[in-house]
Automatic annotation (TrEMBL):
Protein name per its UniProtKB record: Mos1 transposase HTH domain-containing protein
Organism lineage: Eukaryota, Metazoa, Ecdysozoa, Arthropoda, Chelicerata
InterPro entries in UniProt: Mos1_HTH, Transposase-MT_Hybrid
Signal peptide location: none
Domain Mos1 transposase HTH: 7-53
Highest taxon, organism lineage: Eukaryota
Amino acid sequence: MDSSRSAQRAVIQFLRAEGKHASQIYSSMIDVYGEQCLARCTIFRWCQGYEAGRVNIKDLPRPGQAHVVANSATISTVDELIRQNLRITTREIAVELSISKGTVHHIIHKKLGYGKVCAQWVPKNRSENQKTARMGVCLTQEFLH
């Protein structure tokens, strides 16, 4: 038996169309689905929705920021802001681009691979040229001492 949420919503819609009350629907669904059954308050809420004329069993879009905020244009803009000012904060970037601090943090750390060192953004992974230059500086410092 399919115990997915959408299948249970379809059952609620069907039983509500037959004229059954929400408490009767809940009792029937507990018998059939057991622990996989939707919560009582959820069943009652869906029954109210179907009484009000709802026909769709899928979730409606929720308000909030879309998941497309971290697109390539935003990522490149964040990278450009960091390159212009290595001491810029995530809050300043968030205000500048009108996106959440969490999204900025995700872009900086996961997408761009930056980390904060001495209050400056630096790439976590160095290029081969950077590694060679760093090794050269270390070797010259070693010979000086």
